[in-house]
Design goal:
The complex is a heterodimer of chains A (273) and B (308). Chain A has a domain at 49-234: MetI-like (MetI-like fold). Chain A has helices at residues 2-30, 47-54, 56-89, 96-108, 111-129, 137-162, 166-173, 178-207, 210-215, 223-231, 237-272. Chain A contains eleven helices and no strands. Chain A has 273 residues and is mostly helical. Chain B is mainly α and 308 residues long. Chain B has a single domain (83-307), classed as MetI-like fold (Orthogonal Bundle). Helices cover 75% and strands 1% of the residues of chain B. Chain B is built from 13 helices and two strands, in the order αββαααααααααααα. Chain B has helices at residues 2-45, 75-82, 84-117, 120-135, 138-149, 154-161, 175-199, 204-211, 216-227, 229-244, 248-253, 261-270, 275-307, and strands at residues 60-61, 69-70. Chain B has a two-stranded antiparallel ribbon with strand order 1-2. In chain B, β1 (60-61) and β2 (69-70) form a beta hairpin. In chain B, α1 (2-45) packs across α13. Chain B is globular and about 80 Å long. The two termini of chain B are 45 Å apart. The chains are: A mainly alpha (273), B mainly alpha (308). The interface between A and B is large, with 100 and 93 residues.
Chain lengths: 273, 308
Amino acid sequence: MKAGRSRFLLGMLCFGFAFLYVPIILMMIYSFNYSKLVPVWGGFSTRWYSELFQSEEVWNATMLSLKIALLNATFATMLGTLAGIALARIHKFRGRTLFTGMISAPLVMPEVITGLSLLLLFITLNQTIGWPAERGITTITIAHITFSMAFVAIIIQSRLAGTGQDLEEAALDLGAKPFRVLWDITLPQLAPGMVAGWLLAFTLSLDDLVIASFVSGPGATTLPMLIYSRIRLGLRPDINALATIIILAVTISVLIAGWIMLRQQRQMQQREI
Amino acid sequence: MSISKTHAGFGNWLQSRWQTVVSGIPFFWLLLFFLAPFFIVLKISLAESIIASPPFTRLLDWSGGGLPTLKVSIDNFAYMWEDSLYVRTYLSSLKIAFVSTVLCLLIGYPMAYAIVKAEGTTRYILLLLIILPFWTSFLLRVYAWMGLLADQGTLNSFLIWIGVIEKPIRLLYSQFAVYVGIVYTYLPFMILPLYANMEKLDISLQEAAADLGAKPVAGFFTVTLPLTLPGIIAGSLLVFIPATGEFVIPDLLGGGNVLMIGRVLYSEFNANHDWPVASAVAIALVIVLVVPMMLYHKVQAAEALRES
């Protein structure tokens, strides 16, 4: 019975991973296809890659997306860290229930709703106070900060919940003032969580299509918006090449980050022994 | 001298008010950019569509002089309720999201269980393989399925090659493709909460059940399943709620053939430029999803409380 069960689990694991990875691997293989018709194999070639590197449109969209992702990750980490500290360490303040609701809602809120409501806000603001004068990098960044700060807040909150308050209480007992304790003791403990939050906010922003499509204006096309406008009409060999580059870049960064974390974990375990 | 004095003043202020500062800044941001927009959507959903800029009527009419008259119209909601297309679209979205959630659970549960059972580095690598697609572009992963499901695509060619079918069958732009797309992209959202929940479980309880003579199936349904219920609920909601409002997957994999509300909302706004109706569609979607969202919030809060 036991052997049967573990065989079932192993089978499900293989099926699940095949399901997750085979489509991506096939897409990568087809990016080296010479034929313009994506599914028909016409021999090995790197022509789509060289076409990609010559496209100014792709370059501009990539730069815009990276700029927004950097700004977003930085501000979302600051706001999300404050929100996470508020959730984990301040147990009573006015509107706390509303606050926790507003933190957990963006995690599951359908993107079309977030996008539509933010666009209508920007239009209303523009008509009443004249800001934002035009939609583009600023409005996209604000929209991205609003949903990605919630993800950072959850990471920070769970990190603070995991580490005890002993150090903070000891410092307070020794006469340190509350804000100094926050600055000198709580924040340094949070550094790894903040790095993780920053990286997550960065990728969430790079990945977003729906919200950016709503709040962007003429002239500001992010990379996902460009990809979407091209693949709506069907398969495109140049998008296969672009996808391969993006996925490889992300995979390599995640693997390096994972390897560093694994090594740190091992060192900590060894120290404990 | 005066600078240091102000500095000290600011320092004292910060010391006594740090809680207000720390909670106040993100609070203000969310009120302005998360809550306020909802009220604007609600307001526009109660207006009437006109050909103007902005393309809707004002709720408060000041034109009569003196006190404004309040003009609220529920026509948009009545229109949605009467037009069977909208009702059918909501029902179809809920059905697709529900079936996808069940499929994610059926595939994700054994996977999460198998990962928890693995040890040391193997477990870590398996977990990394689940998280990896989560970091790579959602749009590109949906696109990968377009290549697989197209008429001339890999799956059709493969089926013809092994002789199951003679000519290509329609896989892309169908309900089937939308199911595959949703299950594929949301599977990690199901596995991760399940894993987090199972990791904390005491596996010895199952062994105790087995020692006491419980059959594996009975042991699973009476011990394991109830213990993993919080993980099942969290994972299911993380799949169900966003899947209901999904836009990209029905648009790219379903073509025009699959009714989903996210796509209707998008085209109502961007193609028809009917803001009041688009807002009403959004408000109705929030109303449909508010119960599962509050449930998710409860589960999250309970989890946070247990950790601290």
